[in-house]
Write a structure and sequence with these properties.
The structure is a homodimer.
Chain A: E1 16-19, E2 22-24, E3 30-32, H1 36-39, E4 43-51, E5 54-56, H2 58-71, H3 80-94, E6 99-106, E7 123-130, H4 137-142, E8 144-152, H5 169-180, E9 185-189, E10 202-207, E11 210-213, H6 222-234, E12 238-240, H7 245-249, E13 253-258, E14 262-269, E15 272-273, H8 282-294, E16 301-303
Parallel strand pairs in A: 8-9, 8-14, 11-12
Antiparallel strand pairs in A: 1-2, 1-7, 4-5, 4-6, 5-16, 6-7, 10-11, 10-13, 13-14, 14-15
Enzyme class (chains A, B): transferase
GO molecular function, one term (chains A, B): branched-chain-amino-acid transaminase activity
Function (chains A, B): Acts on leucine, isoleucine and valine.
Chain lengths: 308, 308
């Protein structure tokens, strides 16, 4: 598959998408109403951050995206190097120094009258948007108010959560609950009533200096992985293990991780302050600082060429 | 909301969609890559059949669609009469005497930087396609070979199955299993291992003249409801109750119900014939005949005006 020539730097204002084999403005990035990626949510995706002119951990995101496609038995006509080139092309065309960059593969549409998903032609999309924050840097100074919803995350026996997917109605309902109650965001629980994940993020708690994050039934987030690696670097004990609601409510610190903002502090749960002080606790703050410092390490940087 | 004038009869070939407030060819019916209806599968829909020039049970489908939207806290600018008019307009423009007609509501896109689903502008789509068969009339003469997958249907505690939704990855995976094994279609089970539903259909079994269909954790299909009503009319005892895999495998007859084909016989389960004969058993056959005869009853017909 020959790639189209990427548009000139900053030729598209505010964002750029790649759809049907061409770079297009965001407003032209559309999926057929009949694509099974829509009508069956038979789709996988990944998102990666660009910060100050460079992708962060792009390899890891592309690897996971291809693993997700393989798990869903999807194939695209681009290899990993070409996907990388397309993502770079989107960021360059959008002229964004900091960006939220997505790659999407849908099942596509099968030939007329056919219901066999093996016969559909899978479709690839990509895009670059201005960097997205679940909590803005200003909001992070105060910390977020998290609602713990009693809604149950779709079980791993139904949909493999390690394959990044758009099956989010449970999370969306929990968001309604959160906003109705005046909170900032939400998480849902698993079948045992333990903490699962939130809309677009993993959860962590700190108690007596030890960090815990749910072990199963959640996305194996790359930001989650980064936080666990940073704990190791910093000599902070961290475990992936079940986290009860009570443990979260009585934690010393709680934070969330996401490509959309990195490590972000939770200061209240259902309106009740975790500690006397707003903003990040000491462990969260160390991890936040280490997270952003890691963006300067050559091993994790993939600079965008904006020059031509 | 003023409706656009419906296109002239048969002005669009092979199908017609309604998107962004206008009647368009199917190829132009597209959803934004950033619509939460896609990126969160935050969407509901309904489909209704047109047979020999008339909608079948259109009221029931429109009622369910509006109930689904209400459950997801969605609102569109069209009322029920206008949705009905749009659906009629699609069928007329497509010039289809028999059609598969859909209505879709997506969450839409929230203002920039906002994650609150309450602030998104919901979007409405509709379409008319040539009638869709899960099993063609020819295939129905033989009956289908159903694969019982051990994959677990998304639980009602996570996503309300009575709100018609596109959370189908579990069903899609079961379809891969079915096609890999040389079967025609598939169903999945619930958390207790009992029969749940298939991709786009409800399941029924007949044993010793008594009809059973799963009671919970499944879509409350309108075709399912029609089959239950026809049982009552015909004096056939029918229960909504748990159906075990073993019961299904040893049933006298098994059939499925869907807007995409009505009452359709299963003749084999995982390649093993249910009875000595292919095609529909006697109860299935009575229900099939009654199902199509019901399409002639004025109470359930809503004729399409193709004349101008």
């Amino acid at each position: 598959m020959t790639l189209p020539t990427p548009p000139a730097a900053s030729s598209l204002d505010g964002g750029c998408a790649f759809a049907d084999g061409a770079y297009v403005p965001l407003s032209e990035a559309k999926v057929s109403l009949f694509d099974w990626g829509f009508t069956r949510s038979d789709v996988t995706y990944d998102v990666v951050g660009v910060w100050q002119g460079a992708f962060f951990r792009l390899d890891a995101h592309i690897e996971r995206f291809f693993a997700s496609m393989q798990a869903l038995r999807m194939q695209i006509t681009y290899d990993k190097a070409q996907v990388r080139a397309i993502l770079h092309g989107c960021v360059r065309a959008a002229g964004l120094q900091s960006a939220y960059v997505g790659m999407v593969c849908t099942r596509g549409v099968a030939p007329k009258g056919v219901r066999d998903p093996r016969l559909a032609e899978n479709r690839f999309y990509a895009y670059a948007l201005p960097y997205v924050w679940i909590a803005s840097p200003e909001k992070q100074k105060q910390g977020l108010d998290l609602h713990i919803s009693q809604r149950v995350r779709i079980a791993p026996e139904s949909v493999d959560p390690t394959v990044k997917n758009y099956h989010w109605l449970d999370l969306v309902q929990s968001l309604f609950d959160a906003y109705d109650g005046g909170h900032d965001t939400s998480c849902v629980v698993d079948g045992a009533g333990h903490i699962a994940e939130g809309p677009g993020f993993n959860l962590f708690m700190v108690k007596d200096g030890v960090v815990s994050t749910p072990a199963r039934g959640v996305l194996m987030g790359i930001s989650r992985q980064t936080a666990l690696e940073l704990c190791q670097r910093l000599g902070i004990t961290a475990h992936a293990q079940p986290v009860t609601q009570q443990a979260l409510r009585t934690a010393d610190e709680v934070f969330i991780t996401s490509t959309a903002g990195g490590v972000m502090p939770i200061s209240k749960i259902d309106g009740v302050a975790l500690t006397g002080l707003p903003g990040p606790g000491p462990v969260t703050q160390r991890l936040q600082e280490a997270y952003w410092a890691m963006h300067d390490e050559a091993a994790y940087r993939d600079p965008v060429d904006y020059s031509h």
